[in-house]
């Protein structure tokens, strides 16, 4: 399984990446909405997002709406490509198992 990206391969990061990949390129999702979709705690989601951000796979934009802080998330071009590569490698791996 060396060909599977270890950054994406962790179950939580795979869920995050797969969810973000469903969002059109150029669009983004708020942190609370992603947290709700994935049913993850804020701390757990933050930890995994940090790893994805450090790898250059996720763009984290912190801004304000009025006085309220808001965090928006999106896959970067690199992240989208890494997810595509990951799914191709997984399909190939599963194909050899049958």
Automatic annotation (TrEMBL):
InterPro entries: ArsR-like_HTH, WH-like_DNA-bd_sf, WH_DNA-bd_dom, WH_DNA-bd_sf. Residues 13-93 form the Winged helix DNA-binding domain. SUPFAM superfamilies: Winged helix' DNA-binding domain. It comes from the Bacteria. CDD domains: HTH_ARSR. This is Transcriptional regulator. The lineage of its organism: Bacteria, Bacillati, Actinomycetota, Actinomycetes, Micrococcales.
